Amino acid sequence: MSLSASSRNLASKKKDAKWVKAVLIGVAVAYLSLVLFIPALNVFYQAFRNGVSPFVSNFTDPAFLNGIWLTIIIALIVVPLNTVFGLCAAWAIARHKFPGRTFVISILDLPFAVSPVVAGLMIVLLYGRNGWLGPFLEAINFRVIFALPGMVLATAFVTLPFVAREVIPVLEEVGTDQEEAAKTLGAKDWQIFWRVTLPNIRWGLLYGVILTNARAMGEFGAVAVVSGNIARKTQTLPLFVEEAYKQYQTQAAFSAALLLACLALVTLVLKEILERKTHIKDVE
Amino acid sequence: MAVSPSIKRTSSRNPLWHIGNISWAWRITWSYLTIMLFLPAAALFLMASTVSPARFWQIATDPVALSTYEVTFVTALVTALINAVFGTLIAWVLVRFDFPLKRIVDAAIDLPFALPTAVAGLTLATVYSQNGWIGSLLAPWGIQIAFTRWGVGIAMLFISLPFVVRAVQPVLQEMEKDIEEAAWSLGATQLQTFWRVILPPLLPALLTGIALGFSRAVGEFGSIVIVAANIPFRDLITSVLVFQRLEQYDYAGATVLGTVLLAISLLVLVGINVIQAWRKRYES
């Protein structure tokens, strides 16, 4: 093929690239609309379909308020716990090369691979009445299953890997030079952590914390198994959504869903900002 | 671990600090993992071991259980493949083309990670019900989506959508456009260019995305329990069956099915690690 023929060929290809582009964008947007955009918009439409007052009136419903309260309490306990753990695990894994390292990372990933119902089941089998620790817990009169401790454990289980997974690559990328320099200058370990390590990993850490928080507040399956879903006692906001929907209280269900959707929106916006800062864009 | 001279010097000056610091992070990591992960997993295996092998097999291959495996795994596989096609297309559109609101579309891909599954199930059930926005358009053709197996599929499409897009996107971004243009100018059709030039380097990332999406879909509970009718032999998935067994205090039944689910999740996890190891070799 001569050079001019091939460049003509290229030009004609570029011309049909134009309608190909339009078709491809059209298909992508159509698919996203069916699966993602229309369902997402529907949450807002349904919550305010009958105006703002039915939405506001939900805030007098004790079950609804208790759901919000419980969701926040659980997140307030789980997020700091998993942040400290995630930092320790990330530090231990990223700073030491040892045999079986990939295996440890795979173990860390396990909560992502396990169905939340199975996660809840494990906790029931450990702490439940017929569980391993059941008799002991009953003897000291401490309830875990169908109570807050079990819900905290279930939520901590499913959000376990987020912080470590975000921090490990950042720690590896930063390297140890600065820490070693600080050490030779006589800095104490906690000084090195606060002054050198933490500033380096802060965006990755924040990203992990945000993901942990979103999942902690939104977790349904694991919490549903261990909580017993008792209205006004052990019902988080996601459980309230399901319960209200099953009871044909669609308005109440969508009001709670709206709050959770707003949480998701805030998460996405923060994620986007942090991604710009750190250039992380990866699958959890 | 490679100890640099500077560390050696400090640690010889104050060895306890350094050793104490390592074991401190490790101690927290392993204690937390033991309480959160190993003990619950051990409780599950212990409970499973109290079921005799014959009884285990009988529960695991009960006709209802078999039908839930079929619904869960076949639907998850089909939706993972659908998302592989459309996810690649979406990633392609986002990397190669400019169009209005592109940034918002890009950010919105992560919505299924951030949106609680109960909210996803609620809104999908509403949109795809007989009088919902999309469901009402399909109803005249006798197609019912919500509360059927199609609903299970829609929920799985929703929650596993980001995996392929986010796995494929960075690879596409790094791919040089020159190679494609070279293929074009040599007379390759667009289809040939796609099959021979673009797809091969994309394959490892694509497979990772498919496997992650599949494993997420297999474990999904919250959205499906709401959007499906959960009728045995029709649209009952394994996670929901585990939940139902637990509600009936049938711990043996729940444990056996939970163990089956866990074993399959572990297999998929191992598979993902294998693909990623292969990918690293492929890239280097």
From TrEMBL, chain A:
Membrane topology: Multi-pass membrane protein
Pfam families: BPD_transp_1 (PF00528)
A molecular function (GO) term: ABC-type sulfate transporter activity
InterPro entries: CysW_permease (IPR011866), MetI-like (IPR000515), MetI-like_sf (IPR035906), Sulph_transpt2 (IPR005667)
Keyword Ligase: no
Alphabetic keyword roster: Membrane, Sulfate transport, Transmembrane, Transmembrane helix, Transport
Primary location class: membrane
Location(s), subcellular: Membrane
Keyword Transmembrane appears in the UniProt entry: yes
TM annotation in the entry: 21-48, 68-91, 103-128, 140-163, 205-231, 251-270
PANTHER family referenced in this protein's UniProt entry, alphabetically: SULFATE TRANSPORT SYSTEM PERMEASE PROTEIN, SULFATE TRANSPORT SYSTEM PERMEASE PROTEIN CYSW
The protein's name in its UniProt record: Sulfate ABC transporter permease subunit CysW
From TrEMBL, chain B:
TM regions (residue ranges): 30-51, 71-95, 141-165, 202-231, 251-275
Domain ABC transmembrane type-1 residue range list: 69-272
Domain of life: Bacteria
Main location: membrane
GO cellular component, one term: plasma membrane
UniProt membrane topology term: Multi-pass membrane protein
Intracellular or extracellular location(s): Cell inner membrane
Keywords from the named record: Cell inner membrane, Cell membrane, Membrane, Sulfate transport, Transmembrane, Transmembrane helix, Transport
One Pfam family it belongs to: BPD_transp_1
SUPFAM superfamilies: MetI-like
Molecular function per GO: ABC-type sulfate transporter activity
Family: Belongs to the binding-protein-dependent transport system permease family. CysTW subfamily.
Described purpose of this protein according to its UniProt entry: Part of the ABC transporter complex (TC 3.A.1.6.1) involved in sulfate/thiosulfate import. Part of the ABC transporter complex CysAWTP (TC 3.A.1.6.1) involved in sulfate/thiosulfate import. Probably responsible for the translocation of the substrate across the membrane.
Subunit structure and binding partners: The complex is composed of two ATP-binding proteins (CysA), two transmembrane proteins (CysT and CysW) and a solute-binding protein (CysP).
Name of protein: Sulfate transport system permease protein CysT
